[in-house]
Amino acid sequence: MSQSERLVLATRYRLVSEIGQGANGTVWRGHDELLDRAVAIKELRLPENLSENDRVVFYRRTLREARAPAQLRTHSIVEVYDVVIEQGRPWIVMEMIEAPSLEQLIERSGPLPPERVAHIGRALLDALGTAHKAGIVHRDLKPSNVLLDGDRVVLTDFGLAFSSGSASLTKTGHFMGSPAYVAPEVAAGEKATPRSDLWSLGATMYAALEGRPPFERENVMATLSALANESTPAPQNAGALTSVVTGLLEKNPTRRLSHARAVDRLERALAGPRTGRRPPTPRYRVAVVIGLVGATIASCGIGATALIVGMMKESPGPSPTEASSPAGGVQDVPAGVATSTLVVRARNSACKIFVSVPDGPVLSDETLLESEARQYDQPRINAVIYDASACDVWVNGLRKPLGTPGERRNYALNKQ
């Protein structure tokens, strides 16, 4: 056991094991021996080239900016319990959240579906709204600082990074902050503001949708050059979130989406298109067309039977009792098809799905094993099938036709 792992901070916080290291220090798994609970402890590492005056400023800023988010009581911001000075450096004691970061999820699974990104973006807007009202600017919002604990989205490291609030290069050429997610005005030397955090949110959502941030290049200088000189690329996978992401990534902060407008656009995207009356299902549309065609043909003295049969083949699919899979797939119908909003069964190991309740929890984000099935009875569901040839899908009791390999299908479902 190392000397650090034997350390007890403020006579109560015992370091248990190292969780990870970053540019600003080390995060430890700890135990609060007074309250008998697990905690996360961030050991902040001071840059070696700081003068004595800079060290004093660093300590004061750390204490001030760690205490501020400790007053923020919201589900979407990590809770800060304590700040202590031990062995000549500050340590931040926080709630322990054992969950992957958004960065880890992107690296593991690639781009996320718009429905999931919308849920994440909405939670982060809530977190930023709470912080900004308290006068706190995050200054380093990025996927690695966003934890995904089930349905909970948690923003971490509020004001804890060593940053003056303006982006600059150190004497050794290291960028203070995260250049791939920093707002253009901050990179140009201006003070960070709430609008700067909104840019970082846009870059984070872009990365979640596309798999990488909009201006990331091979090194810091190339990234900053692209940020300053290139137009913001349009996201390709954003769907209904396009106007939200492009509005947040407006380079001129005065034209950038405000917090309120971002919330409005995101909630519109989550709600989907609204109409005054629910459109008829394909089955009823087919019936109307059949009637008209049949009447027209009959008036011409032509037998309509063959044409009506042809029209019936355009219906969404056979009834659950008739559903079957083409050769190579599973032939039987899963249980519960007739009464479920959605049933998905894997034809092979490429059947990857994402299912969520609008404005609610994520139900599934997984790759199914061959022949494995999932059933969803919730009245409203959003679903993404990443390979329409790899999954058998039943919607409201009707089997959907198979798609082509690699074809992605999105469903916004209401139980009939």
From TrEMBL:
Top-rank taxon, per record: Bacteria
Keyword Membrane attached: yes
Its EC number(s): 2.7.11.1
GO molecular function: ATP binding; protein serine/threonine kinase activity
Residue stretches making up the Protein kinase domain: 13-270
Residues where ATP binds: K42
Organism phylogeny: Bacteria, Bacillati, Actinomycetota, Actinomycetes, Streptosporangiales
InterPro entries with a match to the protein in the record: Kinase-like_dom_sf (IPR011009), NEK_Ser/Thr_kinase (IPR050660), Prot_kinase_dom (IPR000719), Protein_kinase_ATP_BS (IPR017441), Ser/Thr_kinase_AS (IPR008271)
Similarity comment text for this entry: Belongs to the protein kinase superfamily. NEK Ser/Thr protein kinase family. NIMA subfamily.
Membrane-traversing stretches: 284-309
Protein name according to UniProt: non-specific serine/threonine protein kinase
Pfam families in the record: Pkinase
Origin species: Actinomadura syzygii
Keywords (A to Z) from UniProt: ATP-binding, Kinase, Membrane, Nucleotide-binding, Serine/threonine-protein kinase, Transferase, Transmembrane, Transmembrane helix
